[in-house]
Amino acid sequence: MSGSRPTTPPTDPQDRADLYDEIQEIAAQYPVRRSAVMPALHLAQSRYGWLPPEAMREVAEALDVTPAYVQAIATFYDMYHVEPVGRHLIEVCTNVSCALVGAQQVLEAFENELGVSAGETTEDGAFTLRTLECAGGCGWGTVVAVDHRYREPVRPDDVAGILAEVRGE
Amino acid sequence: MSRRDLLFEHSDRDLTKLAEYEAVGGYEALRKVLAMAPGDVVDEALASELRGRGGAGFPAGRKASFIPKPEQRTKPAYLTVNADESEPGTFKDREIMLRIPHAVIEGSLIAAFEIEASQVFIYLRGEYLTEFEVMKAALDEAREAGYVGREILGSAFDCTFVIHRGAGAYICGEETALLESLEGKRGQPRSKPPFPAISGVYASPTLINNVETLATYPWIIRMGGAEYAQLGVENSTGTRVFSLSGNVVNGGNYELELGTPLSELVFDIGGGIPDGRSLKAIIPGGSSVPVLTADEVETPLSFDAMAEAGTMLGSGAVIVIDDRCCMVQLGLRVAQFYMHESCGKCTPCREGTRWMVQILKKLEAGEAQQGELDLLLDVCDRILGKCLCPLGDAAAMPVASYVAKFRDEYQRHIDEGGCPFGGDSTLAGVLAPVDQHHAKMRAQIEVPVHELA
Questions:
Q1: Which pLDDT does position B418 carry in this prediction?
Q2: Which of A29, A92, B115, B227 could lock A107 by a disulfide, CB 3.0 to 4.6 Å apart?
Q3: Out of A35, A41, A133, closest to residue B340 by CB
Q4: Banded model confidence at residue B438, pLDDT cuts 50, 70, 90
């Protein structure tokens, strides 16, 4: 499990240089370098756990755009975290197909087990719980994405087991 | 007319492996195409009468024919694969990529060849992580085997692929928003014309096709366009993968010949409604299309029949709704989705979807006045056809249809001062992401925000 995702940006100059180089490699795949902003943000987020202002500045520097431009992109898309998140991300789809077969009950089971409301992070920083618009697993609802891996279908009774598994119990 | 596995043929084999895909005729269509003239490939697509499988149903061959020929253009042409599947109810492209990634690659190579493009961008939905890994592994294998790269199979045709991952924005499934996003911008739709065929990504001629459309290309070449057109019905040729979900026993993706009655999918294949409940309504093409009532369940799954019934085949996502569902709550949940996903560029969509949510919340709470039902329809009318892209329409059309077809139920919310279902509706109290965000915003700014929906 990816249980050790850091939540603060690394200050090691070598890490920063590596990120810069990898962004250059991505940019070289596109006819126009600006196209690499999204993949660069994905990469930075996978390093830092979220996108602190420092990470956005590094992406901006690597691609010769302004930090404000990078922030405009980061805030448009739901998958970029512009504030800290837990080491594990639990996303419950509550769109129509999942809701018709009990998504709200699944969401509430997670809220009860974790002791947080949707949109919040547990005090120990282990889990962020949030709702998700249609995940694309509608025929096997309710869909729950655990660190972007889909579990389907999930019933309220499955919730405790999923959390135990992620915790490595 | 019924089930017909074309794309999903040989489902007993692991077709993610190149050797297995080749063993059932994989990449033979590409070999055939490399010996043809690009224009002849377009002719096969035209003869097949294949219509795009993403939602709009535009004839695929005609779309390809709009791309200027190399001697007519000053910039290279590009093929973009729309793999940003996110219309609620739709999960077919995901299964196509997971099961037959090489068919997507082979189809993309054929489409790139027909428009004489040497670069393909696969715009893949960000949430689809496993699908990204499967597509990437298949591309690596195809590259190794000489199907992708320079001088493919000894021909003069070069073609390379880049998988561009999205990051969670429904709007990027709209083709011009997708192109903006691919260029490293916010995914906000462009004004058309110019159409992407003339000025698409990097202001170059760009063909954009859905995953399923491209995965069908190898079969069109193998069978021949004319023979493919024998499948299905007039104006709706071939097979299509339908995503079945909601209150149905056997949810899943099913490949059917077009023209199959909806009832066959829901009852014979889907096993009908579980728990002895009865059918109330069906959304036949993803949450953006007008609803059908239980007595319209015999409508054939074809473009024309759905248009006659006042709705659309859309993305082929069939959502089954049983008698426990309150149609005001359904309208609210659908409107909340589109409000959340509105990119904010056009006022009627940005403001209109928010108005819809506010009115529907009042209706559901039993606090709406009589005039507000008409106001809801008026808001829908002021969105329809008044924006750069169809996202606003995607909220207005279904909600207006719920009011039209279930007017009594909407009226009862006003007359009875509350929801006739009490708290027993399947959608009661469902938390939508847009409400989650607003709750958080309220907590952060610590002052009442009355304007928020």
A1: 96
A2: A92
A3: A133
A4: confident
Determine the residue of chain B that is closest to A136 in CA distance. B91
Query: Which residue segments constitute the domains of chain A, with CATH numbers given?
Result: 13-74 (1.10.10.1590), 88-167 (3.40.30.10)
353-392 of B, contacting A, C-beta below 8 A: none
- Specify if B450 maps to a domain: no
Chain A CA closest to residue B93: A136
Any domain includes B426: yes
Compute the nearest-CA separation of B66 from chain A (Å): 23
DSSP assignment, residue B211? Answer: H
For helices B129-144 and B92-99, the axis angle rounded to 10 degrees is 40
- Write the residue in A38, A104, A119 that is nearest to B430 by C-beta: A104
B247, two tokens:
């209150």
CB contact under 8 A, A101 and B431: no
pLDDT at A1: 35
Q: How far is CA A99 from the centre of its chain?
A: 22
Same domain, B238 and B356: no
In this predicted structure, what is the pLDDT of residue A4? 44
**pLDDT class of A16 with cuts at 50, 70, 90:** confident
Residue B453 and residue B339 in contact, taking contact as beta carbons nearer than 8 Å: yes
Subunit contact A34:B184, Cβ cutoff 8 A: yes
Q: In the prediction, which pLDDT does B249 show?
A: 98
Q: Which of B178, B204, B230 is the last residue of a domain?
A: B230
Task: Identify the band that residue B78 occupies on the pLDDT scale cut at 50, 70 and 90.
Answer: very high
Q: Which of B283, B306, B322 is the last residue before a domain boundary?
A: B322
Q: And the tokens for A1?
A: 């499990």
**Contact B246/A95, CB-based, under 8 Å?**
no
Give the residue numbers spanning the domain of B359. Answer: 327-445
Of B65, B13, B1, the closest CA to residue B259 belongs to B1
**Which among A35, A136, A148 has CB closest to B183?**
A35
What average pLDDT does range B36-59 have in this prediction?
Answer: 97
**Based on the structure, what is the number of domains in chain B?**
3
CA-based nearest residue in chain A for residue B162: A29
CB B67 within 8 A of CB B205: yes
Determine, for residues A119 and B253 on separate chains, whether the beta-carbon distance falls below 8 Å: no
B30 and B126 in a single domain? The answer is yes
**Residue B13, domain member (yes or no):** no
- B119 with A31: Cβ contact below 8 A: yes
> Going along B260-350, which residue ranges are E strands?
279-283, 292-293, 317-322
One-letter amino acid of B97: M
| ipTM attached to this prediction | 0.94
- Rounded Cα distance, B69 and B186, in Å: 30
CB–CB contact B88 A96 (8 Å) = yes
Identify the pLDDT of residue B35.
Answer: 97
A11: helix, strand or coil? coil
> In this structure, are strands B160-165 and B119-124 parallel, antiparallel, or unpaired?
parallel
Average pLDDT over residues A58-63: 96
Task: State whether B57 and B203 are in the same domain.
Answer: yes
Instruction: Decide if B321 and A78 are in contact by the 8 Å CB cutoff.
Output: no
Smallest CA–CA separation between B428 and chain A, in Å? 9
